[in-house]
Amino acid sequence: MGIFNRTVSKAAISPQPSKAAAAGGYYNNSVNNGGANMIGQYYSYIEGPARNRAMSVPTVSRARDLMASVIGCMSLKMYTEMWNGSEMEKMPLAPRTWLRRIDPTLPNNFVLSWLFDDLFFFGRAFLYITSRTADGYPASFTRLPAAMVQTLDQAGPVWFAPSKQIIFQGGELDANDVVQFLSPIQGIIYMSEQAVATALKLEAARYRNSSSAIPAGILRQTGGEPLSGQELADLAASFNLARETNQTAALNEFVTYTETLTSPDKMLLIDSAEFQAMEMARLCNIPPYLAGISVGSYSYQSSAESRMDLWTFGVRAYADCIAGTLSQNNILPNGTYVEFDVEGYLKGEYSMDEMRETETENVVVSPL
Question: Most buried one in 212, 276, 318, 333, CB count within 10 A?
Answer without folding.
Answer: 318
